[in-house]
Amino acid sequence: MVSFRVLSRNILSNWVAYVIQVAITFFLTPFVLHQIGDSRYGVWTIVISITGYYGLLDLGLRAGMTQYITRYFSKRDFARMNRAASSGFALHLGCAACALLVTLATAVLAPLCFSFPPEIETEAVWCVLILGCSTAIQLLLFPFSVALTARQRFDLITAAGLFSRIVSATATVLLLLAGYGLIGVCAAGAAGNLLDYALRWAIGRKILPELTISLRLANWASCRECMTFGFWSALLAVSHLVIRLSDALVIGLFMPVSAIAYFALANNLMKYFANLFVPVSQVFYPAATDLDAHDDLRGLQTLYLKGTRMLSLVAISAAMITGLWASDFYRLWVGDRYVHTDSYHSVALLFQILLVGALFTAGTGIGSKILLGRRKFKGLTWLMLVEGSLNLLISIALIRPLGLLGVAIGTTLPAVLCRGIVHPVIVCGNLQLGFKDFNRQILWPAVVVVTLLTPMVMAVHHVTSPSNWTEMVFGGSLATVIAAAMIGGFGLNTSDRQRYLFPTLRRMTRIRGVLEAKP
Asked: Among residues 128, 135, 105, 144, which one has the least CA distance to residue 48?
C-alpha cells in the first residue's frame, strides 16, 4: 500500500537530483552555445527534436510493461510479472530494429528537409546516426529497468540518472575543449543516456531478484495485454511529443535556423520549469496502480485532491517568481543581446508566454498519472491529441505574421484550454468527484494564495531590481520564503499541516541536528 513516507522519499530524491541537473545545464548551456554558435545550436535542437520522436517506435510498450509489472508485483504474482516482462522484451527487439532503420532514413532525408548550412550538413547526419543508435540500445535495456519503478525506488532511478548526467556533462566540456564541436556534444549526450539505462539494469537486478526476463517466458497473451494498453499510451505519447518537439521543427521549416537558438533558450527553460514538477507526478503512477490493484477508490480520491492541491500551489508560486525575474535572468545568463534584440522577439518575453502553458501542464500531472495507473485514460488521450493538433496548427498559422511570438502563442493557448479547463473534468468524472470537492480543495486555495502573494512578490522584485547574480538570488530567495509562508498558512488546511507539513519539518530538523553533531 502507498505511504506518505514512500511518496515523500521519492519526491525529495527526485527534486534533489533534478535541481542538480538544472544547475549543470545552467552552467553548461552558455558554454556550449558560445563554443558551437547559434547555427550549430539550432541544428542540435532540430536533431534532438527529430530523434525525440523515436520514442514512439516502442508503440507504448514501455507504459504497458510498467503498468503490468507494477500491478503484478503489487499482487505478488511473480509468474505473470515475468511473463509480462519477457513479452515486453521480445516486442522491444523488433522496436530496436525499427529504430535503426528509421535512423538510416532520417540521416538521408534530414538535410533535404531543413535549411542546414552546407558546412554543418555532415555533422548533422552524424548526430542523427549517433542518437538513433543510442535510442535503439535504450529500447533493449528498458525492460530490465522497470524493476525500479515496480519497487517505487525513484531514489535509485534519480541517483543513476544524476551520475550519468554528471559524466555526460564532463565529457561534453572535455570534447568541446578538444575541438570535437557538435559531434562531441552529441556523443557525450548519447553516452550519458546509455550509462543511465545500464545502471538501472544493474540496480534493478539487485532489488527485484524475482524478476526474470527470458524469451522462453514470452507468450501472445502477455504481448496482447501490453500492446492493448500500449496502443492508447502510444497515442498519448504522440500528442506529448508533438507538443514538446514540434516548435523547433516548425521554426526550422519557416524561419532561418539561427532563430531556433533564440526560441530554444526560452523553450528549454520552460521545459525545465515544467519538468521541475514531473519528479513529483511520476511517483504517483506506481502509487495509483497499487491503490487501483486493491480497489481503493477513496485512497485514489485523496491522492488526487491533496497531491494536486500542493503541486498547484507550488507551481503557481514558482511561475510567478520565475516570470518576474525572467528578463534579469536571461540578461545575466546568456547576455543582453538575447533580451533586447532587433532580429527576433525577446527570449524573456517568449519564456513568459510559454510559462503560462507550462503552469497548467505541471498542475495536471498528478491527475494524468492517476488515470494512467487506473488504465482509464482514453479520454485523456483524445484530449492530448486535440492539444497537440491545435498546437501544430496554430503555430503554423501564426509563425508568418508573428514570428517566434506566434509559435509561443500556438503552444500556450491549447494548453490553457485543454489542461486548464477540460482536464479536471475528465479526472473528476473518473474518480467520481464532484466539482464542489475540486473547487474547495484545489481551486479556492490557489486563488487565495495568488491574491495574497502577487503584490508581495512584485514589491520584492521592484525593491531588489537585480543588476547582478547576488541581488537576483537574494530577491528570488526572499520571494520564495514569502511564497512558502503563504502556502503553509493559507494553502493548506489544519489537517494537512498536522499530517504532512509538521512531520516533514521535524524530520528536516532531526537531519540538521545529526549533520551539525558530526565533527
From this structure: 128
Which of 39, 35, 41, 110 has the alpha carbon at shortest distance from 258?
A: 39
For 55, which DSSP code?
G
> For residue 142, what are the contacts with CB-CB under 8 A and spacing of at least 6?
58, 62, 65, 92, 197
Inter-CA distances, 282 with 15, 77, 169, 391, Å? 11, 24, 24, 24
* Closest by CA position to 259, among listed 377, 165, 427, 400: 400
C-alpha cell read off for 421: 479547463
Structural contact between residues 310 and 302, judged by C-beta atoms closer than 8 angstroms: no
Of residues 247, 270, 251, the one with CA closest to residue 259: 251
DSSP state of 340: S
pLDDT digits (tens, 9 = 90+) for 393-417: 999 999 989 988 999 999 999 999 9
Name the pTM for this structure. 0.65
Query: pLDDT (tens digit, 9 = 90+) per residue, 70-124?
Result: 888 878 888 888 888 888 888 888 888 888 898 898 888 888 877 778 888 888 8
**Which residue do the cell numbers 530577491 mark?**
475
The Cα–Cα gap between 459 and 463 comes to 6
Nearest to 69 by CA among 238, 213, 198: 213
The H-assigned helical ranges of 338-493 are 347-363, 365-374, 378-402, 404-417, 423-430, 435-438, 444-464, 469-486
